[in-house]
Amino acid sequence: MSAPGRRPGDLPLDVLHLDMDCFFAAVEVLRDPSLAGHPVLVGGTGPRGVVASASYEARVHGIRSAMPMSRARALCPSAIVLPGRFDAYREASARLQVILRSVTPLVEPVSLDEAYLDVSGAHRLSGTSPDIAWRLRRTVRAELGLDCAVGVGRTKLVAKLASKAAKPRIEHGAVVAGAGVVVVAAEEEREFLHAHPVRALPGVGPRTADRLGRFGVSSVGDLAAVSRDSLVRLLGSSSGRALHDLASGRDERCVVAERPARSIGHEETFPTDIRDPVELARRAREAAARVATRCRSAGVLARTVTVKARFSDFTTVTRSHTLAAHADTAAAFGDVVCDLLASLPSGGGLRLVGVHVSGLLAAAELPARQLELFADGSGQAPGSDGHAHRDRRDDVEAATEAIRRRYGETAIGPLARASRGTSSGPAGPVGPA
Ligand SMILES: [Mg+2]
User: Fold this and answer.
1) How many CB atoms within 10 Å of residue 2?
2) Residue 54 contacts by C-beta under 8 Å, 6 or more apart in sequence?
């Protein structure tokens, strides 16, 4: 039973914590299935590199995140070490966010692969919290091809510890499948919390754990048995009180929905400065294409395109242009980017080019979404190389599918090319600002 004076049912089981399983490594395996079943490490490959993500096959060898890469390689010399492709991780993360937000707008991302959800307003449409947790896990598997663990509890602390408890674990050098979803009911919460080491509580680092250890406190249960006054004397007023509350199951932190992104961008620093305008335009269009892909993954369109250019002498300038209509295509952004680049003072080479788009609008708020898919009219993707057509069609299909998924099968009709004022030419007047 829970603390005296509170009934177990006081707070509903409305907090979910979803955490992807070895996210970066799993995305790499998805992109190159020949990696499946092998120890895969993503992280810094330099002398001071650390492990950012390790597959379970690597964890069997005792490898953990944040371990120096040199030590990880020594533990498992056959590990496949990859430098990481953050664009791919961000894209998978954006798709994850879309899935989470289809359940509730109350989503608080903690990192690329982890988020809290408050599902208190979602029960009528989506069922009980455990139903939602299991369905999320299946949807993430079906749509991203990736596994995750979901914890369900009355508070953020319990939900987070529950998702951890739902993960696969290593036992006697082998991977043991996790439950996938762990639900901690109100009446089980106390026992569940108390079994954890104090380090499991937010705010307890090695130093605090050490201090508590010398006081004979190693588990959350030990901590809950210490009076608030003693904890305040030991750890100071704010930590003492905060930890006493958490150990007693009081966690008043709410799920705070993140404000939607204000801009989406991609910057590239070149290994050597680029002077050739043709090469610069090509690289800038590549950056514009990445930004467009991320906009579509996130389900947003943008109105303002900004180019950032850093010259050899580190002088940095930005130029912006606002489109007549919102867009999310590589061609629409790329055309503006090239015009803006051409308007820059010429001379020195460039060491960095960045493309940012802002004035974002959720695709859902734009009724004629399907028209925008063809809005750039050029029919040419950047760096047009024969794959452009296929890529473009993939984009259209992906977008169509995403719209159907979110708004129902009838939300978007057959992809007939609808007539707009002009059927060719970029979306909106394009030119230097
Ligand atoms: Mg994770």
Assistant:
1) 19
2) 22, 25, 39, 40, 41, 42, 63, 64, 65, 72
Measured in Å, residue 277 CA sits from the centre of ligand 1 at 42
Q: What is the pLDDT of residues 362-380, one digit of tens each?
A: 776 554 433 333 333 333 3
CB 353 within 8 A of CB 312: no
107 or 419, greater pLDDT: 107
Ligand 1 centroid from CA 114, angstroms: 6
Give start-end residues of each CATH 1.10.150.20 domain in the chain: 195-247
Q: Measured in angstroms, how far is the CA atom of residue 422 from the centroid of ligand 1?
A: 47
Q: How far is the CA of 402 from the centre of ligand 1 (A)?
A: 24
Closest to 102 (Cα-Cα) out of 136, 129, 130, 131: 136
Alpha-helical (H) ranges within 168-236 are 186-194, 206-214, 220-225, 228-235
pTM score: 0.61
* Owner of token pair 């079906």: 142
At 125-184, the pLDDT tens digits run 999 999 999 999 999 999 999 999 999 999 999 999 999 999 999 999 899 999 999 999
Helices (H) and strands (E) in the chain, counts: 16, 15
Report domain 23-86's class: alpha beta
* Sign of the alpha-carbon torsion through 21, 24, 28, 34: negative
Q: Collect all residues with Cβ–Cβ distance below 8 Å to 414 and sequence separation of at least 6.
A: none
Active site residues: 114
Percent of the chain with pLDDT over 70: 80
- What distance in Å separates the CA atoms of residue 100 and residue 84, rounded to the nearest whole number? 24
Give dist(CA 340, CA 51) in Å, integer. Answer: 39
Q: How many CB atoms lie within 10 A of CB 399?
A: 21
Q: Which CATH class is domain 195-247?
A: mainly alpha
User: Of 339, 356, 348, nearest to 267 (Cα)?
Assistant: 356
79 CA → ligand 1 middle, Å: 20
Look-up: residue for tokens 């979306």? 427
CATH architecture type of domain 263-411: 2-Layer Sandwich (3.30)
